[in-house]
Amino acid sequence: xxxxxxxxxxxxxxxxxxxxxxxxxxxxxxxxxxxxxxxxxxxxxxxxxxxxxxxxxxxxxxxxxxxxxxxxxxxxxxxxxxxxxxxxxxxxxxxxxxxxxxxxxxxxxxxxxxxxxxxxxxxxxxxxxxxxxxxxxxxxxxxxxxxxxxxxxxxxxxxxxxxxxxxxxxxxxxxxxxxxxxxxxxxxxxxxxxxxxxxxxxxxxxxxxxxxxxxxxxxxxxxxxxxxxxxxxxxxxxxxxxxxxxxxxxxxxxxxxxxxxxxxxxxxxxxxxxxxxxxxxxxxxxxxxxxxxxxxxxxxxxxxxxxxxxxxxxxxxxxxxxxxxxxxxxxxxxxxxxxxxxxxxxxxxxxxxxxxxxxxxxxxxxxxxxxxxxxxxxxxxxxxxxxxxxxx
Length: 392
Ligand code: DWN
Known about the structure:
Blueprint lengths: L1 E11 L14 E9 L5 E3 L5 H4 L12 H17 L5 E4 L15 E4 L3 H9 L4 E2 L5 H11 L2 E7 L8 H11 E12 L1 H7 L11 E2 L2 H9 L3 E9 L5 E8 L9 H13 L4 H27 L4 E4 L3 H10 L8 E4 L15 E4 L10 E4 L5 H7 L1 H5 L3 E4 L5 E2 L1
Parallel strand pairs: 4-5, 4-7, 5-6, 7-8, 12-13, 12-15, 13-14, 15-16
Antiparallel strand pairs: 1-2, 2-3, 3-9, 8-11, 10-11, 16-17
This protein binds ligand DWN.
């Protein structure tokens, strides 16, 4: 049974950055549910993939050094531990991961053709289609099987999870390995990062819920890693049940116990989360308004999908956060979705006359603070809302 625990109000598409502000930008009600049987957390309104993942999708995973390092490290591990002859990435974006493999070793699947173009140009075979059974069958026809499938921050964006895993089951070789990486529900609840919810994130996985989903396809998690990216993610290592080559690691039991102990299987935990989210909104608005009363200038750093959730839920406009800065080419000179807050191209001097910087990309706090030593030295302050609205 699906039970609602959070309502984040009307939210625009998180990656639809318009060239001009219009009150008419379409918004959708964002309600979050917990399924008491499957333990899966999901959003209510499902927007068709074709509306969200278009040929103008702006998000680029290689815009951050942290992500590039993480993908580099993982690719070394994949080569050493699993030695795949051929691997496939579902949601290859601009190639931040596959570019660590040679063009004969890795295939990409990326429905946003503007991004697929980038990896194609580098010589990687990239299917610019949505991930489904037809595509899996097509790839099977072209390459027979693949022995490793990887997907980061993508499967949770696809509505029909049965189709997702049926398609993986179809293409993966008998002893093949599937690696999935997504924000951890446990970390989201612990850190009160309600901004992990937006229309693209249809699901937020936990070990408890993912186990239930993949069980139907005779797949099982045999190892798990907590990683720091995207505010705390889980990397799940999955195999077919019949594959005896890999033993079930104790990391899995440890993670499951942590999730159970924290209450991820109980609805009451999510009601508590709701209360914390409401408190966070009040506290953030108090903090920003106090700063504004002192006539200080606040700008946003990192025009993230997460920031869109915060701005629209807390109703923060350009009178509070004057503008955002970002390095992503396709976000520049556009507006934050749903708000009259412009995004300017990042340059070294952009923080010179700024007093406070709201971290839209709080997940890259360390990377950004390192880059902005001068701002900190001259007394500039960062504001974060994670885990609680605060000046750091
Ligand atoms: O799942 C998703 C995640 C992985 O990426 C997508 N559905 C959408 C997107 O979500 P996001 O926009 O919240 O992701 P990030 O990775 O937190 O976005 C970081 C943003 O900050 C990018 O626009 C790049 C920008 N940035 C910057 O301007 N200067 C980042 C760094 C590190 C910087 O130094």
